[in-house]
Amino acid sequence: MGEKIGALAARFTMVEFPTTSAQGSAEFMQHLFGFGSTAYGPDYTDVDMGGGRLLGFQADQDEAPAGPLVVFQVDDLDAARRAVVDAGGQVTVEPFDFPGGRRFHFREPGGNELAIWTPALPSE
Question: What sequence ranges are listed for the domain VOC (predicted)?
Fold first, then answer.
């Protein structure tokens, strides 16, 4: 999957930003850098930076992070949640489904909020 972080194999995949306009932020990135985007409704847009790295823009103020939210991908979300707690982290948002997978948020001991996700299993 990626570089081993402690007992957890993870890779950095995205940073999610709060925004007042998901579409406006995505259009800016496209104009400036040529990055394509995918809108998931009016309040959320992913911008593809290439190499499996995304920028997410969240305009729903009830769901937007307070600041940039770094997101890591793992194969086993339940094991990752246990590892976060065992390492002294505090789960701030329990695992939830979203288009494309599941994720949860947590705070590390220094106070930074991060997230871990896993892709949805392919439909059978």
Answer: 11-119
